[in-house]
Amino acid sequence: MYSRVVSGCLLVLFLLGCKNEKNDKVAEEGIKQPNIIFIMSDDHAYQAISAYGHGLNNTPNIDRIANEGAIFNSGFVNNSICAPSRAAMLTGKHSFVNGKVDNIRAYDWDQENFAKTLQRNGYQTALVGKIHLDGLPQGFDYSNVLPGQGHYYAPDFIENGVKKTYPGYVTHVTTDIALDWLDNKREKDRPFLLLYHQKAPHRTWMPEEKYFTLFDDETFTPPSNFFDEYEGRPAAAKHEMGIYKDMDVVYDLKMLDKEKEIKTKYRGMFQRQYNRMTEEQKAAWDAYYDPIIKEFKAKKPQGKDLALWKYNRYMKDYLRTIQSVDDGVGQVLDYLKENGLEENTIVVYTSDQGFYLGEHGWFDKRFMYEESFRTPILMKYPKEIKPGTVVDGLVQNIDFAPTFLDYAGVDIDESIQGESLRKLVKGEASEWRDALYYTYYEFPGEHHVKRHYGVRTDRYKLIHFYYDLDEWELYDLEKDPSEMHNVYNDPAYAEVREEMHVQLEAMRTKYGDSDVLNQEHLDRFLKAKGLSK
Questions:
Q1: Which single residue of 197, 275, 342, 465 could bond 235 by disulfide (Cβ 3.0 to 4.6 Å)?
Q2: Average pLDDT of the residues in 224-243
Q3: Quick check: 319 and 57 in contact, CB under 8 A?
């Protein structure tokens, strides 16, 4: 009997000794691990957050995160398309390492992600909303996610593997599920990680009734390069994401006339979205949009007038969906404050990538040009981050995973390619990266954006477009922030060009990318689409 007791005690001591050393240190010093709420929206341009100062809209609740914490002026993604960006966020690794290079290839949930690591180290974890990665999410005690892109009205969700439909508007439903988990489903004596991810403002920008008339009295002036002719940029000229040429007046701009006289390629797709509404919702929708449809059919705008009409219709609906996102952020921040959780909770707001709001005449993302490469990042943590902090260092979405692990006091695996932002945001980083690496693979595909990779420093950007063309572009972002002038062949930039080529190769070596990998990804992509030779 005595020997069993001794053996049992030794086993317990052995198991305790196997705990993560950093966690032991946290326990010994009495440091409470912070809660983490990671808010991600979809396609939310930094230009459409008022804290960034572009004046398009007002996002007071998202701005609260910046005002009470930090705003990052140089936040970027590794691959500007939904699923690959989210895979990089979860793993802290570039697309060519985690395997999710495009929206088509399956994501391997069996690989490590930061939620799994936190879960093993005492955190209770939840994922709510959009993740756009097929399969049952791993690393989460609770998941309730949108399948695929999700729907704005009567959205389907998959709760712990079980599909169900919720009445209502997707942004509110997502927020309600997140708040319910915070209030009723978590254990109140343990640290938590909540990934609270909104669908909006993803295409097709269907606003809720509350905001139908918001911006009705506004006429938005397009960016100065709205009528870009892409001189010296052949890859940009071959796009299929122009507001004037490619934006569908029914699918994107809601001109679903009852007479069915407006016939477009994607009319049926939007009809199915409309059909998800209740009769009451349809009545409210029709009361607002039918007069706009009638006026559009009567005026029949053409040419430049049509381009400007499309731009304003797009901007208004896009910004309206963001207003609902901002409301949800406010509800979550208020919950933290009202329940005594504010001081010990890290809150991050970001998007899976940036978005074009008329720059170069475009909507959508994908290109390495600034508006889609750059993403908003705002973070608050009252225990460490001073209100009003401004961070200018080059930051990328592969940095989220190591940042959360660092704050939690958990070892960061050497395979993670990102860097913790903790010292940077506190102003204590003696050294920081001087360049960022980018890749994009999904061609041939939607929007016709060519395959490319590139490097960006604080001033210059070098891009290589490849596969069915071989084009190089170089931009001086200080003199040409709108990226209108490709100076790759300008003799005045010969020395800069050579330096950027050296920087590019150094980045590819550092992260493990190569032309061989590019060819492997291309072969798999073409095979998946039935296009292999």
A1: 465
A2: 95
A3: yes
Q: Encoding tokens for residue 92? A: 């802290």
Asked whether the predicted pLDDT for residue 26 surpasses 90, the reply is: no
Q: Which amino acid is at 499?
A: E
Measured in residues, the chain has a length of 533
Query: Which strands sit side by side in the sheet containing 451-456, from one edge to the other?
Result: 436-440, 451-456, 460-466, 471-476
Buried residues in 197-206 as b, exposed as e (16+ CB within 10 A) = bbbbbbbbbb
DSSP E strands in 202-338: the ranges are: none
Does residue 106 surpass a pLDDT of 50?
Answer: yes
Written as six digits, the tokens of 255 are: 């001109």
Asked if residue 17 belongs to a domain, the reply is: no
Q: Domain check: are 198 and 246 in the same one?
A: no
Give the pLDDT confidence of 333-388 residue by residue, as tens digits.
Answer: 999 999 999 999 999 999 999 999 999 999 999 999 999 999 999 999 999 999 99
Buried b or exposed e, range 266-302, using 16+ CB within 10 angstroms? ebeebeebbebbeeebeebbeeebeeebeebeeeeee
Together in a domain, 289 and 337 = no
Both 280 and 329 in one domain: the answer is no
Residue type at position 224: S
The band of 168, judged by pLDDT with boundaries at 50, 70 and 90, is very high
Assess contact for 397 and 114: CB atoms under 8 A. Answer: no
Per the structure block, which two tokens stand in for 421? 């932002």
Q: How many domains does the chain have?
A: 3
For residue 533, the model assigns a pLDDT of 54
How many CB atoms sit inside 10 A of residue 190's CB?
A: 11
Give me the mean pLDDT over the 450-464 stretch. 98
Residues 6+ away with beta carbon under 8 Å from 523: 532
CA neighbor of 457 nearest in space, from 481, 476, 484, 480? 476
Cα–Cα distance, 311 to 207 (Å, whole number): 16
Q: Which residue has the tokens 């979809």?
A: 42
Helices (H), 339-421: 370-373, 400-407
Sorting pLDDT into bands at 50, 70 and 90, what band is 225? very high
Q: What is the distance between the terminal CA atoms of the chain, rounded to a whole angstrom?
A: 73
CA 144/CA 336 separation, integer angstroms: 21
Give the chain's mean pLDDT. Answer: 93
Note down the domain range covering 446: 438-528
Residues 68, 192: one domain? yes
